[in-house]
Amino acid sequence: MDAEMKRRLVEAQRNEITEYHVYRALAAREKNAANRDVLERIAADERKHYEFWAERTGERPGPRRCKLWWYVTLARLLGLTFAVKLMEHAEEGAQVSYGEIADTYPEAEQVLRDEEEHEDELMAMIDEERLRYMGSVVLGLSDALVELTGALAGLTLALRNSDLIALTGLITGIAAALSMGASEYLSTKAEDQSAKTPGKAALYTGGTYLLTVAVLILPFLLLAEPLWSLAITLAAALGIILVFTSYLGVARDLPIARRFLEMAGLSLGVAAVSFGIGFVLRLGLGVEV
User: Can you list the domains of the chain with their CATH numbers?
Assistant: First the structure.
């Protein structure tokens, strides 16, 4: 075994033992028995791979503590699904290395097959509440972004007063959040086979809408110049869309760039049209504030 091959194998070992500790930590805090069982079995596989390479390198490197802390923290903040999927995506690079190493060590092909099976097994096993209600979150977020950015853009040209715009936007946003929550409650209740409960679905939709409203209105409460406030609001909307589509893309294996462009295009497009409508109505009606 040459020095370069040994270095790569020791690196593979370090990845395996790190992921072993991550899966063990996630399993220890997992309340769902089925999820916990699969996490423990995958952890055992990672440990087996580590020992497999230790016999060939004579080395026993320790885990990357920062990586261990990072994925466990992500699981606590953003959910088990997101943390595990992100780690599995990182494993794809290791799978390429195993494919190359298999030219020298044919036994590595079994390790590679194990790694490839992990993601499918994880996707089938995880039943997480936040993902079951993701449709309700998407509904609240997308409606708030499209409707409120449009309303604030129109109000900015029509009223040209930050306090009035904020007041009007808050009234509109709170009323819309309550309406969206009620609609989601009735819609979920009408679905006979829905895995969601109507009350929780309404809370996820209305709560997401209300939180988005608060973020978008905030610049108008802090700044006196409405055009600057609108610019910051639109930037905040793009930031929300980027964070959300990145999360959803990882958790659901969806194309991030396309979904970001779709949501951003809709929000900014409606805002541009509403901005123009506000200008035309102010001139046409001769309203001065």
Answer: 3-127 (1.20.1260), 130-285 (no CATH)
